[in-house]
Design brief:
The complex is a heterodimer of chains A (about 550) and B (about 170). Chain A contains 22 helices and 20 strands. By secondary structure, chain A is α/β, with parallel strands linked by helices. Chain B is α+β, with helices and mostly antiparallel strands and about 170 residues long. In chain B, strands 5, 6, 7, 8 and 9 form a five-stranded antiparallel sheet that branches. Chain B has a four-stranded antiparallel sheet with strand order 2-3-1-4, covered by helices on one side. In chain B, strand 6 and strand 7 form a beta hairpin. Classes of the chains: A alpha/beta (about 550), B alpha+beta (about 170). At the A-B interface, loops of A face helix 1 and helix 2 of B.
Chain lengths: ~550, ~170
C-alpha cells in the first residue's frame, strides 16, 4: 500500500513489536507526530520534560525489559539533547533506536533553522547510524537499524529522517522481522576445549562477571558453571544481578569500590574467568598489576574486547549463554582440581573484610539496606551516578538480572529518574526505586512532572549530603581536602519541589524513621520523593585509588 | 613501532571515510596515509590504510574496523607478500640550464614528465617509499616547489586476494 514516510516509519516500528516510544515533538517531526496520533491505539507515546529524559527512559525500558528502547526527537536541539542518552546506552551496550527529524533535503547543509549534523555528531557513540535520503529506503533502514541494535553486542542506532521524507509516499509491504540469532559462529570446539584445559589446571579459579551475562540472560548457566567449578564470583557494576547477590560464592563488586575479598581474589587466583566483562579501568585499575598470578580466560561476544585492556591466555568469542552451555557440556565427566582450600581462604577473607560502615546516625548504607529488606529484594533499582550509585550497588543484594539499572560506562549524572520512568513503564507491576544524590537529582528533576503525569509510582530516594559527594571524596583524598565547587548548600526544599510537581514528598532525618517513611512511600502508589539528610562526611568504601594494584591501598572505614 | 598496511573493503556510502577516520582518531591510532577508491563492484570501495604501532594496536585496529557496520572485510598486506605502490607528483624548479640534468635523473627512476613550463616541470613517479624518497633527495637541490602523494595502495602477491584471506 502507498503510505507516507511517517506512516511507513510507524508501520516498521509495529513490525518490530514496538508498542512504547519516548519522544518530544518539534518542527521536523510534525509529520511523524501527526501519524502517531492515528496509530495511538497500537503505540503509546510518552512525553518527557526534556529530550534527554526520553533517551534515558528508552534506555531504562530496554535494560529492564530486554526489548529495544525507542526514543524520538526533532532536529537540531531536540537531536542534540538525545546525545548524552545515546552515549550512555552506547557505553553500556543497550539496544536503543533513536529517531531524529531533520530539515528537508533541499535545506540540508545550508545551516538551516534547527539543522544539525546529528549523524556526524553521533558517529562515535552509536553502533551505527543512518540518514534517510530516499523514502523508498526508509523501511529497509528501519529494519536494518533494529537488527543492528539487537544483534551481537547490542547498542544504540540512530535514524535521521529529513522532514520531506516523512511526507513523501512510497509503497509499503509489511515484513515480519527475522528473529535475532545468538552469536555462536566463533564458538569453536578448540576454544571450548582450551577453556576446559585451563579450568582443569586451576585450583584457585575466580569468576569476574559483567554486563554481557545480563544481556544474554545467562543467569542459569552462570550459576551452574560457578557451582560446577566451585569458584568465588565477583561482579562489575554492569554485571550485578547476573549472579545471585546472596549466594555464598558471591563476593560482591570488584574494582575501585569492590570488596576487599573480590580484589584479593583477583590478586591471588590462578585463573580469572571473565564472563561478559570488558576489564574496564574501574575494575582493573592498573593493567600491569591486575591478576598477577593468574591466567586469563575471557568469554565475550565482542572479539575486540579480547586483548583490548588485558592480555588473555584463552577465550571463547560468542554469546555468553551459549558459550557457557557448550563449556558445561564439554566439562561433563571431566575432573576438576579441588578448590576446597581456596574457598576456605575466600571465606576467611569474607568474614574478615565484610562491607562495613559506621552506625549511629542516618547512614546512606543503612537506608539502602532497609530499601532492600522492605522490598524483599524484588524492586528494580535505578541509580544516578556517584556515591549514591555505589552505595546502591553495594548494599542492595541484586539477585535477578535487569534489576540494577545504572549508567556504568559513561557515568551519567541525571540518568536515574528518566531511566526509572522507562523501567516503570516497561514493568508496571514492579516496584521501581531511583537511588539518587542531591546533585544528580537536581540535574533532571523536571522528569518528576512526567512520572506524575503518567501516574508512575516511582520512589526517588535522595541521599542528600548537600554535596557532589564523589567529587568531594576525591578532593578529600587527592586534593588535600580542597572542596572546589563540590559543596552545594542550596536551599532547595525537595519536599516542596515534589509537591509542586504533584508528587509526594518526605523528609527523612533520623535513623529511627527509615522504615516508617519507606513503608509510607511504598504504600503511596504515587511518585514519591524522600529527601534523606545524610552526613556530608560519609564516603564510599572500599576505595581503591586509580592506578593502584587491586589488593593494595584499599581505604577502609575505621570501625 | 612497526608500519602496517591494512586493506579494507567497505560499502561505498557517503560517510564511510569519516567513520573509519573517526575510529582512528578517537581511539588514538596513528595513521600515516589512507587512500580510497571504487572496486570492480561500484557498491564497494577499497581503502588502503598505512598505520603504525605495536602488534597489540594492530590487533585492536583490525578488530575495531571489523565492527563497523559498513566494513565488509579487513586484511593485512604483509611486507613480504604484497606489492605496494604510491603515486607522487612533484613540481620542481627547472629552467634551460637545469632541465636536461633533471630529465636524466627522471629517466633513471622511470618517472615521467607530465608538464613543462619555463621555470618548472612536473614529474610523476610511482613506486614504494624508498624509491620515491631517493628521487626527492636528488631533486631537492634544484628546489621542489610542491609535492602531492596518493598514499600507499597495495595488493597481495600471487593468487591470494582480500576475499580469500581468512577472517581476522
Amino acid at each position: 500500500m502507498l503510505l507516507t514516510g511517517a506512516e511507513i516509519l510507524i508501520e516498521c516500528l509495529l513490525e518490530q513489536q514496538v508498542d512504547t516510544i519516548f519522544g518530544y515533538p518539534g518542527g521536523a517531526v510534525l509529520n511523524i507526530y501527526d501519524a502517531l496520533a492515528k496509530y495511538s491505539d497500537r503505540i503509546t507515546h510518552y512525553l518527557p520534560s526534556h529530550e534527554q529524559g526520553a533517551a534515558h527512559a528508552a534506555d531504562g525500558y530496554a535494560r529492564s525489559t530486554g526489548k529495544v528502547g525507542v526514543c524520538m526527537a526533532t532536529s537540531g536541539p531536540g537531536a542534540t539533547n538525545l546525545v548524552t542518552g545515546i552515549a550512555t546506552a552506547y557505553m553500556d551496550s543497550v539496544p536503543l533506536i533513536a529517531i531524529t527529524g531533520n530539515v528537508a533535503l533541499p535545506l540540508l547543509g545550508k545551516d538551516s533553522f534547527q539543522e544539525v549534523d546529528i549523524t556526524g555528531i553521533t558517529m562515535p557513540i552509536t553502533k551505527h547510524n543512518f540518514i534517510v535520503k530516499n523514502v523508498e529506503e526508509l523501511a529497509g533502514v528501519v529494519r536494518r537499524a533494529f537488527s543492528i541494535a539487537r544483534s551481537g553486542r547490542p547498542g544504540p542506532v540512530l535514524i535521521d529522517i529529513p522532514k520531506d521524507i516523512t511526507a513523501q509516499k512510497a509503497e509499503y509491504t509489511r515484513e515480519t522481522p527475522k528473529p535475532v540469532e545468538r552469536h555462536t559462529k566463533h564458538i569453536t570446539s578448540a576454544a571450548v576445549e582450551n577453556a576446559v584445559t585451563m579450568l582443569k589446571e586451576s585450583s584457585r579459579p575466580f569468576v569476574y562477571v559483567g554486563g554481557g551475562a545480563v544481556q544474554s540472560d545467562a543467569g542459569p548457566e552462570l550459576a551452574e558453571f560457578v557451582h560446577r567449578i566451585k569458584a568465588p564470583v565477583a561482579s562489575s557494576l554492569m554485571g550485578l544481578g547476573a549472579f545471585p547477590g546472596n549466594d555464598p560464592y558471591f563476593c560482591g563488586l570488584i574494582g575501585m569500590h569492590g570488596t576487599r575479598t573480590s580484589n584479593l581474589c583477583a590478586s591471588k587466583c590462578d585463573l580469572l574467568i571473565a564472563i561478559g566483562a570488558r576489564f574496564s579501568d574501574r575494575v582493573v585499575s592498573n593493567p600491569k598489576r591486575f591478576a598477577p598470578n593468574a591466567r586469563i580466560l575471557q568469554i565475550d561476544i565482542d572479539p575486540a574486547e579480547i586483548n583490548k585492556n588485558i592480555q588473555t591466555h584463552g577465550y571463547i568469542i560468542g554469546d555468553v549463554k551459549i558459550a557457557l552451555q557448550k563449556l558445561l557440556e564439554a566439562m561433563d565427566g571431566e575432573e576438576l582440581a579441588d578448590t576446597t582450600d581456596w574457598l576456605s581462604q575466600v571465606n576467611e577473607w569474607q568474614s574478615r573484610y565484610p562491607l562495613a560502615y559506621k552506625d549511629g546516625i542516618l547512614r546512606p548504607q543503612h537506608i539502602v539496606e532497609r530499601v532492600y529488606a522492605l522490598t524483599n529484594g524484588e524492586a528494580i533499582i535505578t541509580t544516578e551516578v556517584g556515591q549514591n550509585q555505589i552505595w546502591a550497588a553495594q548494599y542492595y543484594h541484586f539477585s535477578r538480572p535487569r534489576t540494577f539499572i545504572s549508567s556504568g560506562g559513561l557515568g551519567t549524572m541525571g540518568f536515574g529518574l528518566g531511566a526509572a520512568i522507562g523501567t516503570q513503564i516497561g514493568n508496571p507491576d514492579k516496584t521501581v526505586i531511583n537511588i539518587a544524590g542531591d546533585g544528580s537529582f537536581r540535574m533532571n528533576c523536571h522528569e518528576l512532572a512526567t512520572a506524575v503525569e503518567y501516574e508512575l509510582p516511582i520512589i526517588v530516594v535522595i541521599l542528600n549530603n548537600r554535596a557532589l559527594g564523589m567529587v568531594k571524596q576525591w578532593q578529600d583524598h587527592f586534593y588535600d581536602g580542597r572542596f572546589s565547587q563540590s559543596i552545594i548548600e542550596r536551599s532547595t526544599d525537595f519536599v516542596k519541589l515534589a509537591e509542586a510537581y504533584g508528587a509526594v514528598g518526605f523528609n527523612l532525618t533520623r535513623k529511627e524513621d527509615v522504615d516508617e517513611v519507606l513503608t509510607a512511600a511504598l504504600n503511596a502508589k504515587r511518585p514519591v520523593v524522600i529527601n534523606c539528610e545524610i552526613d556530608p562526611e560519609d564516603k564510599v568504601y572500599p576505595f581503591l585509588p586509580p592506578g593502584a594494584a587491586v589488593d593494595e591501598l584499599i581505604v577502609e572505614v575505621s570501625q | 613501532m612497526k608500519r602496517y598496511v591494512i586493506s579494507v573493503l567497505v560499502d561505498n556510502h557517503s560517510g564511510v571515510l569519516s567513520r573509519v577516520a573517526g575510529l582512528f582518531s578517537r581511539r588514538g591510532y596513528n595513521i600515516d596515509s589512507i587512500s580510497v577508491g571504487e572496486t570492480l563492484d561500484p557498491t564497494v570501495s577499497r581503502m588502503t590504510i598505512v598505520a603504525h604501532g605495536d602488534d597489540a594496536i594492530l590487533e585492536q585496529i583490525t578488530k575495531q574496523l571489523s565492527k563497523l557496520v559498513d566494513v565488509l572485510k579487513v586484511a593485512i598486506l604483509p611486507d613480504d607478500a604484497s606489492v605496494y605502490r604510491e603515486l607522487v607528483l612533484l613540481k620542481v624548479k627547472a629552467d634551460d640550464s637545469t632541465r636536461a640534468t633533471i630529465s636524466d635523473v627522471i629517466d633513471v627512476f622511470r618517472a615521467k614528465i607530465v608538464d613543462i613550463a619555463p621555470q618548472s616541470m612536473t614529474v610523476e613517479i610511482t613506486g614504494d617509499r624508498p624509491k620515491i624518497q631517493a628521487l626527492v633527495d636528488l631533486l631537492s637541490p634544484h628546489g621542489i616547489l610542491e609535492v602531492v602523494r596518493t598514499g600507499l595502495i597495495g595488493l597481495h602477491r600471487g593468487d591470494q586476494n582480500i576475499l580469500t584471506q581468512e577472517e581476522i
